[in-house]
Structures are given as structure tokens and as C-alpha cells.
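Q: Give me a protein?
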Amino acid sequence: MKKVLSFLRSMKFGMILLVLVIACSFAGSMIVQQRDAMEYVRRYGEDAAQLILALGLDDVFSAPYFIVLMAALCLNLILCSIVRLPRTMRAKKALISRAETAKTDTPLDEGQAGKLCAFFEKRHYSRYKAGDRIIYFKNSIGFYGSFITHFSFLLILLVGAAAVMTADVRDQTVMPGETLELEGGISIRVDSFQIVDETGLLDYASTLTVSDDIGKTVTREIRVNEPLSFEGYKIYQQTYGTAGAVRIKNLETGVSEDMKLTEACFLTLDGVSGMFYQALYPGYVTDSDGSVTLITSTSGAYTDPVYDIVSVSGGAMTPVLAFPDETLTIGNVSFTMLDPVSYPGLRIKHMNPLVLGLLYATFVLMVAGLYLCFFAAPLAVAADDDGYVILSPKTQTGLMIELEALLKEE
């Protein structure tokens, strides 16, 4: 049992867990998360998609193995902290005890002893006497650097998990040119969205303008894994879609309206005659016999869009394949197919301000622990008639050179 506990709290076990967590996090950052299977096939190919789905890399941070890794890492940190704290609390006493009995050499005359005393007082060392020996002590809190670092890392994991669990997350589709209103006077306008860049390469990017009710405004382009942060909100490029577009015109009044079509629907003015929109296809292939085969999926923009519609008039239903700029007239209403509109699916996260503040505080605590580990090593200097000796967990070469130079001064 002791060997098991020793391994669970060992640095070796902790480093293995940390490397595995980092590897999973890297995979979660490089592979888009929480998409349907066909999206992974389009992006990475069939073989890679099967591997991604089999390993759960499509939703890494909710995968059972990732949760187990995080739990094991927390256990390692807890055991490290529990073991280190009593040892840390004893370390200061141990260093003082060593200073009281450590052998000193190089006798000090009265002038040198005075210089030594002035040197340590100027640098705010603590001082006390143990018999004929004077002990100067500094950075006792440095003993706690390792404990604080381990403990803060544990807090980062726990508070980070709490931040994710308590975050308000919503997925929203917004058409280019439209504005989404959020609580607290926050508005998100999608200025533009693109699936491919100027060179034809896939590049899912949205240009957003985000503002609050006091006039603060930020305009920025976001991509997958490149979110926009604003007033506690994080806005991600999560997914995308392509909507059909149609202009409906009443031929009697001349009034027209443009509509975006994201799902099957029946467009009518009288409830009887009209156009039934079924689907939009990204392209087509003309066979040798002149027949048309529709392309059902694509990972890019719709280069040759085809509208699959049904004309409903006088009780008759007529299937029709229409292209942009074609007009279908049914009774006194005309339906003009327009170029499809690509739109982004945004994931909007809002963190609890209190939890977010605690998370920042844990990072500050970790920085403090690292500072104590590397820049605040505890040390004690014992001086008596026989000389002085420097005691510290870390080599104090700089202090030794400084004291030797001081004592040689006339």
C-alpha cells in the first residue's frame, strides 16, 4: 500500500498525467469539437474521421478518459500537497537548528562583525542570538513555494472545471447583416461570413461587431479556436450553414420581401397556392444522357446551387429544380431564387464573474508560488567569533562572493 501511495504522489506520475492532459488538450484544440460525423469526413477524410470518432476526439473534454486523467491529476496534487505541508512546516525549524550548530570558520574581528551586522540589517534579515552565536534569517516563506505551486495548480483545475460547468453556453445561428441581442445590453452583429478565402482554401471566418449599451464597440474576425472576448463573453466560430434565399413579390401590389430559407417550408399568401421549398443542393452533374444528378454534400461554398422546390397551384403539385435568378410565377405571386447565403453558427459563452475572478486569483497564486520557488530561497547565516557560515536549500554563490568582498574592504 505504501508503494502505491508513493507512486500516486510521485512527480513521475504527475508528469505522466500532465503530458497526457496536454496531449488531449492539444488534440481538442486542433480538431473541431462536437460536430456531426459527416463534418469530420468532409474535413479529414473517411479513415481519419473514423479514428477521431472511435477515440472520442470529437468531444475530448467530455470523454471518460479525459475526466479520469483530470481526476488522477487532482489526486496526485492533493497527495503531494498533504505530504509536503508537514515537511515544509518542519523545514524552517530544521534550518535554524542547523544554523545553531553548524561549524563556522574564518575568524571575524570586531570591525568585520560590525560590517556583517550592518549588511544584514540593511537587507531586513531577521536576527536572534543563540548563546554566543548570532543568526540572521530571511525568506522563511520561501519554504512554502513548492506547496503553494502544487496547491494553486490543484485550485486551477477545480475552479476551471467549476467555470466550465457554471458557464452559460448557447449556440446561435445569425445571418450576415443581422444582429443578436443578449442580456445586459450586449449586441452581436455579423458583418460578414466566408467559407473559403480569396485563394479558394477553406477558411471559416466571421467578422463580428460587438457592442454594449454604453457605446463600447469591438470589430474583429473570428475563426475556429480564435474566439472574440468581450465583457465576460467569449464568442466562437462553432459551425456554419448555407441558406436558400428567395424574393417573394405580390404582382398585384408590387410589394416584395426577401426571405432566408434554412428548413423545408411552404411559402404562400392565400394558404392554398404557393411554393414548397424542400432543399438546397451545392451543385449538380449533368450525365451523358442529359439527366441531372444532384451533389448532396460539400465542405466548401455552394458553387452551382440548385433549389429543389415544388410548385403548388390549383391542387396540382409540380416538382421543379431551379437556379439562382430564375423566377417561378404561381397565380399573382412570383418567387425569384437568389444566391444562397452562407451563415455562421456561433457558440456564445458567458462565465460567472465570481468564478472567473477566482480563476484569475488562482493564476496569481501560482505565479506567487513559482516566484517563491525560484527567487525567494530561504537562507540563514550564523556568525560567531570563529567566523560565519551560510545555510540554504539552494547554493548562495552570489551572497558568498558579496560577503567575501565586504569583509576584505579596509
